[in-house]
User: What shape does this take?
Amino acid sequence: MPVNLKQLAAELQLSTATVSLALRDNPIVAEKTRKKVQALAAERNYIKSNLGMALQSKKSRIIGYLIDGVTKTFYNEVLQGAGEAALEQGYGLLVGLVSKDDKAANLRQANLLLEKDVDALIVSEHNGVIAPYLKSFEMRKKPVVYCTCEAPRPHFSVTSNDFLGGELAVKTLAEFGHKKILVNANSMNKQRHEGNLSAARAAGIDTVDFKRTSDILRLLKRYSEITAIAAYHDTEACDIMFELKRAGYRIPQDISIIGYDDLPICSRPEFMLTTIAQQRSMLGYRAVMLSLDLIEKRNEPFGNIVLDPSVVLRESVARPGKRRAR
Amino acid sequence: MPVNLKQLAAELQLSTATVSLALRDNPIVAEKTRKKVQALAAERNYIKSNLGMALQSKKSRIIGYLIDGVTKTFYNEVLQGAGEAALEQGYGLLVGLVSKDDKAANLRQANLLLEKDVDALIVSEHNGVIAPYLKSFEMRKKPVVYCTCEAPRPHFSVTSNDFLGGELAVKTLAEFGHKKILVNANSMNKQRHEGNLSAARAAGIDTVDFKRTSDILRLLKRYSEITAIAAYHDTEACDIMFELKRAGYRIPQDISIIGYDDLPICSRPEFMLTTIAQQRSMLGYRAVMLSLDLIEKRNEPFGNIVLDPSVVLRESVARPGKRRAR
DNA sequence: CTGAAAGCGCTTACAG
DNA sequence: CTGAAAGCGCTTACAG
Assistant: This one.
């Protein structure tokens, strides 16, 4: 019942060449012929097989997407954006779901994607674990695009501007009138932390570094002027909020907190967390678009696309009151 | 630099047929020859292109996975399980990310997957929206496997046993000593609700139906013997918990609450929600396995696989105390 | 045990 | 404007 090019051609008494061109509406074929071909194709519910085309053109029109941790990160939203772009452009998205712990699976997955003839690879991970398995892509001149927070240097990438995000967080606190704040300075958090410091200098306010949630209460006791906290990310912000409430602090009357990421949990009534939102699905969308530019060498492709985050105001940041003594 | 079968054959002074067989370690080829071929293939970093094979065998060894709402549901964990199974079996997983609102995108996505020659389709959705776009798969005799809470009847499917889940929820409350409970009875929730009622009968305890979170406070006032609530899912459970706390109820001292799904939020200290866990990644895993059975007609495939959920005990369910009057 | 040939479903020069 | 031919990278009968 389902029909292929050859059968279509036979039924129309035309050559496969003509039918092939007509289906793509190539004006080299007489308009009348084109219409006739397209009409029959529609009637027969003809769907072109990618295989023949791919073999011929050495382009599968499929993009690989290697994701480390779909379930534990917001990469599922990045994936959503990538899916939209791929669909728009008629590309397939072949996913490789890996975890940083499983080196063997990483290697097998990279090879599997190559075997399935993907034209390019998008990588979302943040541990630098996948890189060693990507040599085969380079050897085959298949573009690799990193789509993550911070990309390893010499690669094509679509990333979120973490420095700006860090600035926005502190700028927001400063605008609400906070003069001395705690900022996260763990080792994963270089960019945002630098942004924090830069904005603090610009606004003329004081910062104190913390590394872990468990440091917070001690630091608040020590520096009674501190009235706000810029967390590493939303989950940490929620953890801090929990600890502070348990210790008797009111949020935001005593202490304001700002998160990072705008996870769904932020809008729950228990938290109402003011935070910095990344353009999650746009990250994926642009990564696919950049990949296509590289595959089809359309535009002179931008090597490193950086998307700006933005502030989402909720209720966890307010003007500083007089902190109640504890 | 990257090499194909033909070049490998030329370099080895063998026919492509022999090389092809040798690479798959077919014993019809002399062992010595096989080793020689495999050695050179490894040295040259040969990766077999799927295209030739797929065209020849009419099997792409790629499975399509149509997901309605990766970002808003736990389908991302189902996807994870599907990815594991696919990798194990050497299959690619081509994702189609759709949303129920966008009919045009649904159709285009289904056709795109077909165009990319997927061998089978897995569908995760729960609105019955995708079904009309799946005729082309049936016409082409491509297996379609539903992987969702409730699958439309005559299809192959991998689902979670919602009736049992509903039973487990109420059985848990009964075991903790609750005698009269509120159970969710909204129209989406038939299976779990029936399970609730069945377990209540078995345990000899009373149930009162509610439909919305906003009904709860009124019902608790009206029936002062009620000491526990079985929610539709975790998010509802958290909402209820919020409302109850605001109204001055203590959880679980005054009212116990049980959720459904075991979302990550359940283990946050603010909630510590006792709940029913579905085998999320196993759903995806089995869906891929069932698809392969259907594609390769290996085993007489089971039409409808049902996975059992289980109870996860945390702190939101306890023995009933004497409810404080409000 | 190995090779020559045909073919999977397309597209792309090239003739006419 | 249309057709005959070659070919993309493999595999599968079939000969030898």
Notes: Residues 14-18, 21, 28-30, 33, 52, 54-58 of chain B lie near DNA strand C (CB under 10 Å from a C1').
